[in-house]
Specification:
four-stranded parallel beta sheet; Oxidized Rhodanese, domain 1; alpha/beta; 93 residues; 4 strands; single chain
Length: 93
C-alpha cells in the first residue's frame, strides 16, 4: 500500500514541526508532535491508530523520526514528506 492509499484508508498523520510552524498551516486532522518531543511522547504515539504517516516542512525531520521509529521496531511508520505534499495526497480523489 502506498502513502496515498494509507492516508485514504485513515492513517494517522503526525506533523513533527514546531507548534508555531504547525499553526501556520497543516494537514486537516493531523496531530502535532514536534520532533524534539517525540521520544518523550512515545506512549501517546504507540496508542494512536496505525499506520502512522509523518510529515514536516520538507520531509527531512519526518524522515529522521521515521528512521528512529523503524530502527526501534515500529514498522508501520512512514515518511510522507512535506506537509503540503501529504495535504495534496489527502485531498486527491
Amino acid at each position: 500500500m502506498n502513502i496515498q492509499e494509507m492516508i485514504k484508508n485513515g492513517a494517522t498523520i503526525i506533523d513533527v514541526r514546531t507548534p508555531a510552524e504547525f499553526q501556520g498551516g497543516h494537514v486537516d486532522g493531523s496531530i502535532n508532535i514536534p520532533m524534539n518531543e517525540f521520544v518523550a511522547r512515545m506512549e501517546e504515539v504507540k496508542a494512536l491508530p496505525h499506520p502512522l504517516v509523518l510529515c514536516c516542512a520538507s520531509g527531512n525531520r519526518s524522515g529522521q523520526v521515521t528512521q528512529y521509529m523503524n530502527g526501534n521496531g515500529h514498522k508501520d511508520v512512514y515518511n510522507g514528506g512535506g506537509w503540503l505534499e501529504v495535504n495534496a495526497l489527502k485531498t486527491q480523489n
